[in-house]
Specification:
- The complex is a heterodimer.
- Chain A starts with a strand and ends with a helix.
- Chain A folds into two domains: 182 residues, 3-Layer(aba) Sandwich (Rossmann fold), CATH 3.40.50; 126 residues, 3-Layer(aba) Sandwich (Rossmann fold).
- In chain A, the strands form three sheets. In chain A, strands 3-2-4-5-7-6-12 form a seven-stranded mixed sheet, with helices on both faces. A five-stranded mixed sheet of chain A has the order 9-11-10-13-14, with helices on both faces.
- Helices cover 34% and strands 21% of the residues of chain A.
- In chain A, helix 1 runs parallel beside helix 7 and helix 9 packs across helix 10.
- Chain B folds into three domains: 75 residues, Beta Barrel (OB fold (Dihydrolipoamide Acetyltransferase, E2P)); 82 residues, Dihydrolipoamide Transferase (Irregular); 216 residues, Chloramphenicol acetyltransferase-like domain (Chloramphenicol Acetyltransferase), CATH 3.30.559.10.
- Helices cover 31% and strands 25% of the residues of chain B.
- In chain B, strand 4 and strand 5 form a beta hairpin.
- The longest helix of chain B has 16 residues.
- The termini of chain B are far apart.
- The relative contact order of chain B is 0.09.
- The chains are: A alpha/beta, B alpha+beta.
Chain lengths: 323, 406
């Protein structure tokens, strides 16, 4: 085991996959010589050269278009959208082209591409640099959506995403880049579509995504002092969702809270609530509670700190449904 | 028309009585003169006949005490009458004595369908809890899981007068969170009551030790070699039953019961063999085992165990036992303190049978050893008598050929 931070876990995954398969290449804004705006691709341009670590023009549509074309031609591109907020410019390429081409061509081609993108709060950088937009892609058939919360999950899931023959949106929370965690020395993969029980408990289930996994774990520690044992589940892959792990947990605890950073309407919380209401209604001893960001554009500056659900919000919500 | 069932005065000095058991359930139809409830005082237990016919609404629960002439139940002519009676009771409980405009929460709470969580509704269905009788303790009076579980707990009833329910210390849910509450019912409840009663009624002690069964193992092996000729594979249990039955003929005091301050020594020797099923222990009986051959015992036992495992055993198969054998050695257990099956006075536990080193004539040899645990009721049997029983067992099991003379 070694201690690795989140951004290096991603770096190592990229390096290992590029070493393993020469069809894998990286493209994005400033990913090459500059080493990426957050330093995530540092050292890769030096090692693999300009052909395999490409700096692109400032055009998200072109970046994804490049990925779609290259994937169709037999490459395995891993492209980066610097801030998820800008992914809107490439929506047609992602949702109409990348997501559908395999189906439209009757399975003759597959598009083994990965779109890495930085999302979420943490820089106090306002409404165009902090959003969590995973809902749009969960809603689109033909795309897989992955959101790791630890260095271990990030490395194992990214390697699997690169080896997956389907388009995968790989979401990296910018507020998590510095966190450290244990990662095995030897190679390992984490399968897509499998949730992780980050903490077992018996009184209530909290399903949390991204940075909120850590918030939930912090709340769990505080609640444990009052004798309340929280079970914290990290779905890791948002689409396809591991329904079984979540339902099994709710069957055990009879209480469910979902905490995520995006807004409530049609968020991952809404999806999980519907699944549990449809397939596990009899498990519930209290209404389902969702904790999410308020329905407003993200404010610029320190106000951002008040936006995202915190440990106390989770603690209060748990105590309320256990009444 | 509503009719009251009241606490009767069962004696000139009686001032109050306790509900021991409701023989009819909430909402159930009761015929006139049908036994509807059992009430008790410190002196007596009395079955109350219903003063009329109707659907029963229970007012006073089990173990509660009320003065004489207080209504303990109401008989309603029709289900509608019952429903409106319950609704009226509920409304009286919820509407405040001072007139106030009810808040939205109160309005929600007074609607006739109780607010209930999906889980609580499912549990109520499974455990046959009438939701109308459950008080909700969740937000806005919502009925939740703990309310259903409390309702199930409150249903516990006392059984025979000899077995008094002690005060059950319950954990309040603010101090300890209950993981699960399993109601005691069916075979589990029968076992719970019988065995608890057994330890209360008798002075039980156990004699434990080892018996050299080397010769019996050899004997049985010979029988197995002749399986085709005999027609069956004789088991050690078959042999043990025959041995025990024979000894009981020689020592009839071990085949008795205490009834009304007298020791009744039984004429028949009916040996029960304990069988472990998923839902609990069951003891089918080989009647007059002393009069049967080992082969007959084998067929009877095989049939009983097979039917027990397939739940096709009937009442006759398990009644009339005068002595019980429990073979727990097959689970690897060596010794135990088995509890006697009342009203018997002894139970022979057979533990692990295994190869062991033994000292015979100053030599260490390898033989077969069988652990035993014989529990006896000291009110009837003293230790010396128990030792005699075991010594006879030793004799038979060391010389199994003697069995062809009995």
């Amino acid at each position: 085991m070694k201690s690795l931070n989140f951004r290096w876990a991603i770096n190592e995954a990229l390096r290992e996959e590029m070493e393993r398969d020469e069809r894998v290449f990286i493209a994005g804004e400033d990913v090459g010589k500059p080493g990426g705006p957050f330093g995530i691709t540092k050292g890769l341009w030096e090692k693999f050269g300009e052909q395999r670590v490409k700096d692109t023009p400032l055009s998200e549509e072109a970046i994804i278009g490049l990925a779609v074309g290259a994937a169709a031609a037999g490459y395995r591109p891993v492209v980066e959208i610097m801030f998820m907020d800008f992914i809107t410019i490439a929506m047609d390429q992602i949702c109409n082209q990348a997501a559908k081409m395999r189906y439209l061509y009757g399975g003759k081609i597959s598009l083994p591409l990965v779109i890495r993108t930085l999302f979420g709060t943490g820089l106090r950088a306002g409404g165009h640099h902090s959003q969590s937009l995973e809902s749009w892609f969960i809603h689109t058939p033909g795309l897989k959506v992955v959101m790791p919360s630890t260095p271990y999950d990030a490395k194992g899931l990214l390697k699997s995403a690169i080896r997956d023959d389907n388009p995968v949106i790989f979401l990296e929370h910018k507020g998590l880049l510095r966190i450290k965690g244990d990662v095995p020395e030897e190679e390992f993969l984490i399968p897509l579509g499998v949730a992780d029980v980050k903490r077992t408990g018996k009184h209530a289930t909290v399903v949390a995504t991204g940075k909120l996994v850590h918030t939930a774990l912090g709340a769990a520690e505080q609640l444990a002092r009052d004798g309340i044992e929280l079970e914290v589940i990290d779905p890791r892959t948002l689409s396809p969702l591991d329904k079984e792990t979540i339902l099994n947990s709710v069957r055990k605890t009879n209480h469910l809270i979902i905490a995520h950073e995006g807004t409530k309407p049609c968020g991952i919380g809404a999806e999980i609530s519907a699944v549990v209401a449809e397939e596990g209604l009899d498990f519930l001893d209290a209404p389902i509670k969702r904790l999410a960001s308020p329905f407003m554009p993200i404010p610029f500056g320190p106000l951002e700190d008040a936006l995202v659900p915190g440990e106390n919000d989770i603690i209060e919500a748990v105590k309320e449904i256990l009444k | 028309m509503l009719k009251d069932v009241i606490m009767p005065q069962l004696g000139a000095e009686m001032t109050a009585g306790r509900i021991a058991e409701w023989k009819k359930k909430e909402g159930e139809w009761v015929e006139e003169k049908e036994v509807v409830v059992i009430v008790e005082t410190d002196k007596i237990t009395y079955e109350i006949e219903s003063p009329g016919a109707g659907y029963l609404h229970i007012l006073i629960g089990v173990d509660e005490e009320v003065p004489v002439a207080v209504p303990i139940g109401i008989l309603c002519e029709s289900k509608e009458e019952l429903k409106s009676l319950i609704a009226k009771e509920r409304a009286e409980g919820l509407i405040k004595p001072k007139t106030e405009t009810p808040s939205p929460e109160q309005l929600a709470a007074t609607t006739s369908t109780p607010r209930i969580s999906p889980l609580a509704r499912k549990l109520a269905r499974e455990y046959h809890v009438d939701l109308e009788t459950v008080q909700g303790s969740g937000p806005n009076g919502r009925i939740i899981k703990r309310d259903i579980l409390r309702s199930i707990e409150g249903r516990k009833v006392t059984t025979s007068p000899r077995i008094r329910e002690k005060e059950i210390v319950s954990f309040s849910s603010s101090e300890k969170m209950i993981k699960e509450i399993i109601p005691l019912r069916g075979i589990r409840k029968v076992i719970a009551d019988r065995l608890y009663g057994s330890l209360q009624q008798m002075a039980q002690f156990s004699d434990m030790g080892e018996i050299d069964v080397t010769e019996t193992i050899k004997f049985r092996q010979k029988l197995l070699e002749q399986e085709g000729f005999i027609g069956a594979a004789i088991s050690l249990n078959d042999i043990l039953i025959k041995v025990v039955a024979t000894i009981l003929k020689q020592m009839p005091i071990m085949n008795s019961s205490i009834l009304d301050e007298e020791i009744h020594v039984w004429n028949q020797i009916n040996i029960g063999m304990a069988v472990s099923l998923d839902e609990g222990l069951i003891v089918p009986v080989i009647h007059e085992a002393d009069k049967k051959t080992i082969l007959e015992i084998h067929y009877l036992l095989e049939d009983l165990i097979d039917r027990a495992r397939n739940h096709r055993i009937n009442a006759d198969d398990v009644k009339g036992g005068t002595f019980t054998i429990s073979n727990f050695g097959s689970y690897g257990t060596m010794y135990g303190t088995p509890i006697i099956n009342p009203p018997q006075v002894a139970l022979l536990g057979i533990g692990l049978i295994r190869q062991a080193a033994m000292v015979i004539n100053d030599q260490i040899v390898v033989g077969w050893s069988m652990s035993y645990s014989l529990t006896m009721n000291h009110q009837v049997i003293d230790g010396a008598v128990g030792s005699q029983f075991i010594n006879r067992m030793r004799k038979f099991l060391a010389n199994p050929s003697v069995l062809c003379t009995v």
